[in-house]
Specification:
69 residues, single chain, 2 helices, 2 strands, two-stranded antiparallel sheet
């Protein structure tokens, strides 16, 4: 349980530091026979740093529960 808590705390720290992920999605614009015309459009997925802090609190709780047993 202690190792799981440490991993969750590290994951929460990552979510706190990095608050967004950018990626590209391809959209097909035109297809004529064997010729295709595509367009790469940037997308972004973002979240609040408070989510990362809440995940770190959950990890700390798991570590404390493992220490009590």
């Amino acid at each position: 349980m202690k190792i799981i808590g440490i991993v969750i705390m590290i994951l929460g720290l990552g979510f706190t530091i990095y608050t967004s992920i950018s990626y590209f999605s391809r959209e097909q614009i035109l297809k004529v026979g064997t010729i295709e015309l595509t367009h790469s459009q940037p997308q972004s997925l973002s979240w609040s740093p408070f989510i990362g802090m809440a995940i770190m609190v959950l990890g700390a709780y798991l570590i404390l529960q493992a220490r009590k047993k």
